[in-house]
Amino acid sequence: MEALLSLAFDKISSKDSTKIKTGLRQIEGLLAQICLSSAQQSTQSPSKHRRSASVINTSAKEDSRPKTLQDLPDDPAFREFFRLQDGFEWNVASRLITTLERLLGFTQTSSADLLILSTLTLLHGTLLLHPPSRALFTREIYMNLLLDLLDSANPPAIQSTTLLVLVTALLGTPQNTRVFERIDGLLTITSAFKSRSTTRGLKGKLLEFLYFYLMPEVGLGLGSEPNTVVRAKRSRSLLSITSGVGEEEEEEDDDEAQKEIRSTDEKQKLLGKYLSNVEDLVQDLRESTPFGV
Fold it and tell me: Which letter does DSSP use for residue 54 in this model?
């Protein structure tokens, strides 16, 4: 797995768009093998997964049973991937963010836009598979990168996918939400929502984001997180196994996260500075529970 990641990282670090595309496909293939290979294959030993990781086969037999969310934490390949993500050298999310920064410096063409879209899609999946990588977005420079991608100069497809990444970056991480607020993220979102140039489909995505933002906050170590690949407590326990983080250190992190949490009423006041009908959104959120919460 390390060899494959090393090869992919070399490719996406290039200034050649063809090499970047190849590297992104290699990362996609690795994630596909981890997530989509049959449950029967997941019982193989970690060493066998590592030996076969350099040959990616995303096809599945019609009679094979795909892995479920419950299968992943017990899968040797996933555990190996998770372990590698805890270190800077093999962290996929950080490499993808660097790639995005480089791609934004390219001349805006359809091929460059497709590379940005592919990178965002992979970043979204990586943040779901490895929740601790969301801590990267406590840095304002990385959060600003997402806000830059929401600029109206970018195609609606890129803006929509950026919103998915942003939601995942904020999910279960109140610290990241505070960074988002501090660098005028709410202004960026509401300006796009009110803009006449914003497409109807994108406005729907922006509205969904506002509902998400107004939801009660839950830290990764403070409770369950129903809509991620790995539930919070399970990912935290797996992080402890793979990185050697002790319970005492986890409790300290939980205490810090607790201090960062804001209520829906507090966030309603913040959002109200930029949007006039926030009270209606909050009432609708409480009555209809659009996210099943």
Answer: T
Could you give the CA distance from residue 79 to residue 76 in angstroms, rounded to a whole number? 5
**pLDDT value of position 230:** 37
Q: What is the pTM of this model?
A: 0.78
At 279, phi and psi to the nearest 5? Answer: -60, -40
* pLDDT tops 70 at residue 39: no
pLDDT value for 220: 58
**Per-residue pLDDT tens over the stretch 147-200:** 999 999 999 999 999 999 999 999 999 999 999 999 999 999 999 999 999 999
Structure tokens at 263: 């209520």
Backbone angles phi, psi at 45, to 5 degrees: -70, 155
Cβ contacts of residue 193 below 8 Å, gap of 6+? 203, 206, 207, 210, 275
User: Is residue 73 scored above 70 in pLDDT?
Assistant: yes
Task: Give the torsion sign (CA, 265, 224, 69, 44).
Answer: positive
- Whether 88 and 94 have beta carbons less than 8 Å apart is answered as yes
Q: Can you tell me the distance from the alpha carbon of 175 to that of 155, in angstroms, rounded to the nearest whole number?
A: 29
What single-letter DSSP state applies at residue 139? S
| CA 223, 228, 234, 239 torsion-angle sign | negative
Q: Which of 216, 218, 210 is nearest to 278 (CA)?
A: 210
**Chain Cα centroid distance, residue 153:** 23
Count CB-CB contacts under 10 A for residue 3. Answer: 11
